[in-house]
Amino acid sequence: MYKYIITAIIIAIFAGCSAPKPKHAPSWYTSPPKDFKFIYSVASGESLTHAKNKAIINLREQIQKDLDSVFTNKTTKLKLDDSFDLTPILKENERLVNTMSLIELKIEKTQKFNDQELILLKTPRKAIFDRFDIIATKRLKNSKENYDSIQENDSWLKKYSILHNEMKNFAKLASIIEARKLLINSYNNISEINYLNNLYSDYIELKNQISIYVLSDVNSMGFVKGVKTALSSNGLELSSKPKSDKSLKIFITSTTQNVQDYGFNKSKSLVKYTTYDLNKNKVAFKQHTFSAKSRKSYSDAKAQSLIHQNSKIKKLGIFDFLGVK
Questions:
Q1: Gene3D superfamilies recorded for this chain (predicted)?
Q2: In sequence order, which ranges of the chain are alpha helices (DSSP H)?
Q3: In this model, does residue 306 exceed pLDDT 80?
């Protein structure tokens, strides 16, 4: 009797070892499903945990690739110039996708194949959309409030400062607005796209018309460079010749006191920054005091005070620094 039992066990073992293994990966792995409710991702790994982690990475990369293509293939309804640099938007796409929560992620299928674990994950589109919607709604509300705060009688520099500040958020808004459309294709984002188009066109139109001439009295020549650098970095053209009636002039004047302070040469300058339009109307004014000490000379101390000016510009922003209100 025992002989028959042992024989049966041996036969069963050999039968199991000789059972045919699948020659091909399952169709759900080679051709992952696509639908309007879920986003799917597949991967393989030495273990289910390894495969799952890879599938999550693949899912994020898939969404980012699709989102990037909206802009690079110009399927977006955003009206951007050919010279528009997409780099900030593509970087924002990457940040947005890599930080999005996937708490509703589920394992749909698994299978062993060639000593590897195959996995199919899915996550609901609506869940990601809802989280993006909360963020987008808040960002759009803040941006529109600032945009709508522009008044007809505001100076050109104030209008530009508001538009320029909102353009700093353009990439974040464009990315998340198109991400929602990518997740739920039936979502109507036309009004949001129109807002971004208006913001961009207003900004470019004004930017192309403004030029700024920065000059100073003899005592203030050292303070000019920092102001020019800040204006240029904010997209403004510097020119002594007006481009249009929206061009401006910034005149820098100062008074400097040089005194001895416990063996140091101390230089203290009261610097005034006055902005005029082409009709010589004052449109902005601000004064700042900068002081510094040096054992070398008063001129070296004054040179150190220029660093303080540039630090304050960086802290306040050039428009607040100039008194744009």
A1: Acetamidase/Formamidase-like domains
A2: 2-17, 27-30, 48-72, 87-99, 125-148, 156-167, 170-183, 190-207, 224-233, 298-316, 318-321
A3: yes
Pick the residue with more confidence: 325 or 201? 201
Rounded distance between C-alpha atoms, residue 56 and residue 61, angstroms: 9
CATH of the domain at 114: 3.10.28.20
Q: What is the pLDDT of residue 255?
A: 92
With respect to residue 98, please indicate whether it lies within any of the assigned structural domains: yes
Question: Which of 207, 237, 272 is a domain's end point?
Answer: 207
Query: Are residues 131 and 112 located together in one domain of the fold?
Result: no
Residue 154 burial (CB count, 10 A)? 16
Q: What is the number of structural domains in the chain?
A: 3
3 within domain boundaries? no
Q: Is the pTM of this model over 0.90?
A: no
Q: Which amino acid, residue 66?
A: D
- Tens digits of residue pLDDT in 159-189: 999 999 999 999 999 999 999 999 999 999 9
Residue 9 lies in a domain: no
Residue 257, token pair as written in the block: 């006191």
Question: β-strands 211-216, 237-238: how paired?
Answer: parallel
Residue 110's beta-bridge partner residues?
A: 119
Residue 148 inside a domain? The answer is yes
Confidence bin at 20 (pLDDT 50/70/90): low
